[in-house]
Design brief:
By secondary structure, this protein is mainly beta. It folds into four domains: 2-166; 173-294, Immunoglobulins (Immunoglobulin-like); 316-337 and 359-451, Immunoglobulins (Immunoglobulin-like), CATH 2.60.40; 454-571. Helix content is 11%, strand content 39%. It contains eight helices and 35 strands. The termini are far apart.
Length: 573
């Protein structure tokens, strides 16, 4: 009885420990869904990120710094697994209670190509070769504490996807001539060779027709497989070929073995049996030849069959779009006039930066000429190369022309845009380039918007005499020389009237007039003090001009998420 009691107490303690351990591991919940149609290679999912959905939930009330590791396992002994103990350069950070939904574009968070072990398959086969062999697979992801490597989510089967099958396409089936058929001919060599298109085969599928002559009573399979040089061989697209007098002459009464092989020139599709059909055979002209020899049969007129011209892949594909520029959306808004304008004591002069939550370009966009647009391609193995570079025209339009097969080999395509003016933030954007029904990759890439690297001017007039509201006029002036050297200023709507000033024999153009109590939000970063002047007039006093000088611009490293404000005193007594 005592032993039974001790056993039950030990068992109960073990169960409590098990429940506690399970709750500790459940701080992060992970669920994965792989959607059909399923792909052969992991890298192919980068072009179809929507086919993998990964939901990660931080169930705790604290921020979690995680290391994610993944695996793909098949019921055929195939496995890809990130090495135990692998640690990325930066953690995967989740806020308290955060729910994060990822897709196949984020696979690099779980699969570092340099830290994967392969079982039953090589890295080349998995990433660039024929991909996964036929079988049923599961993808699993587990979260670990980034610092301690302690598990933060439950192990397999938790955090695993649904089972997804990888099935190769069936090879083609020869329809005509039928196996062992005796071909009737009147002497004109017209033979229709046709086959069934494999279900699911892409439109780019090619077919290789191979004919060999069978000697004596030889086996058709042996004849085809042992022939060094085939009697006839060609590659076509479509499911028919008309064997005509232009092809090698078939001999009356001879037997021929034939095979049709399907293959994908883009190497994105796998076929069973290497795409090879069942070998068939036919005898050319036997029955008709005997009839002609007997002289007792009237031959029918030959049937003329129009040759089907299969679609061809266009040699070149064109990508086009427009380049524009715009102020940041935040800078398009008018200032409310709440800033102080003047006072007896000067303010601290500085150039300060604040982080903007909204870094979206504004809706008012201007055509951008002479933008340098570079197209980059990322191949299946992850290597990147420049596909081409072009410049936008006066209306902002641009276009590329590329070899179609060059684009077909890329799993990702992205664009970088820069401008020699130095007044615009460079941008990088991934673009979606897909194959059209005509097999080309002609694509309209839409509009690329470069944000203006603008600054704000907060003028403060120092004066012992207070100014009446609305009696102060502040204007921003820029030298004529710089204005005409910077065509983007006019395109952006500055200096609408091109009002002029001549100061110390230097010509200036008035860019803008400030409202009372407001700051100027659209100052281009084109240097000071030589180029800009601030004009101040108030209370019927003489107009005064001030350069923007004696300020140090300490721009942060990531200026695309910040905006700079120039706080400047103007002594106007």
């Amino acid at each position: 009885m005592k032993h039974t009691y001790l056993f039950i107490r030990s068992l109960f303690a073990f169960l409590l420990l098990f429940v506690w351990a399970g709750s500790a591991l459940a701080q992060i919940n992970i669920s994965i869904q792989v959607l059909p149609p399923y792909l052969y290679r992991v890298t192919d999912y980068a072009s179809h990120p929507e086919r993998i959905l990964i939901t990660i939930v931080n169930t705790t009330a604290t921020e979690q710094r995680l290391q994610l590791r993944g695996s793909i396992t098949g019921d055929n002994g195939i496995e890809m697994r990130v090495r135990d103990g692998y640690k990325s350069r930066t953690p995967f950070v989740m806020a308290a209670g955060e729910v994060r939904i990822l897709n196949a574009s984020d696979l690099t968070l779980f699969f570092d190509l340099a830290n994967i072990t392969y079982t039953g398959i090589t890295q080349y086969e998995a990433l660039r070769g024929n991909g996964f062999p036929e079988g049923n697979y599961r993808m699993c992801v587990q979260a670990f504490n980034y610092n301690t490597n302690a598990p933060m989510s439950a192990a397999s089967p938790s955090g695993c996807s649904n089972s997804f099958g990888v099935n190769n396409l069936e090879p083609p089936v020869i329809l005509t001539p039928r196996d062992k058929e005796e071909i009737v001919t009147n002497g004109t060599q017209l033979l229709t060779i046709s086959w069934g298109t494999p279900p699911g085969a892409p439109p780019t599928t090619m077919y290789r027709i191979r004919l060999v002559e069978i000697l004596g009573n030889g086996n058709p399979n042996d004849a085809l497989m042992t022939a060094g040089q085939p009697f006839f061989e060609t590659e076509v697209r479509g499911n028919m070929y008309i064997y005509s007098p232009a092809d090698p002459q078939l001999t009356m009464g001879r037997r021929y073995a034939m095979m049709v092989t399907a293959f994908d020139p883009l190497e994105l599709t796998n076929f069973r049996n290497k795409g090879q059909s069942v070998v068939t055979s036919f005898t050319y002209g036997t029955v008709q030849a005997a009839a002609v020899a007997g002289g007792g049969i009237t031959l029918p007129a030959p049937i003329v069959i129009e040759k089907v011209v299969a679609p061809t892949i266009p040699t070149m594909s064109t990508l086009k779009g427009f380049a524009t520029f715009a102020y940041l959306e935040e800078e398009e808004k008018e200032d409310g006039g709440s800033l102080p304008l003047s006072g007896a004591s000067p303010i601290a002069e500085s150039i300060s930066y604040e982080t903007l939550e909204n870094t979206k370009a504004g809706s008012r966009q201007f055509p951008l000429p002479n933008a340098k647009i570079t197209l980059h391609g990322i191949e299946i193995n992850g290597s990147s190369s420049v596909l081409g570079t072009t410049y936008s025209r006066a209306d902002g339009s641009y276009s590329f022309s590329f070899n179609t097969l060059t684009l077909a080999k890329c799993r990702d395509v992205y664009i970088t845009v820069t401008h020699d003016s130095g007044q615009l933030y460079p941008i990088t954007k991934y673009v979606k380039v897909v194959q059209n029904q005509d097999l080309s990759y002609n694509t309209d890439l839409g509009t690329l918007v470069m944000p203006i690297a603008s600054m704000r001017l907060k003028p403060f007039i120092v004066s012992r005499t207070p100014f009446a509201d609305g009696k102060v006029t502040i204007k921003i002036l820029l030298t004529d020389r710089k204005y005409y050297m910077s065509p983007l200023l006019k395109l952006a709507g500055l200096a609408p009237d091109e009002e002029r000033r001549t100061i110390n024999r230097t010509s200036y153009v008035v860019l803008a007039t400030l409202k009372s109590g407001s700051s100027f939000k659209k100052l281009f970063k084109i240097g000071y003090p030589d180029n800009y002047l601030v004009e101040v007039s108030a209370n019927d006093k003489p107009t005064m001009y001030f350069p923007l000088e004696n300020l140090v611009d300490r721009s942060p490293s990531d200026t695309t998420k910040t905006i700079g404000t120039i706080s400047k005193n103007f002594q106007y007594n």
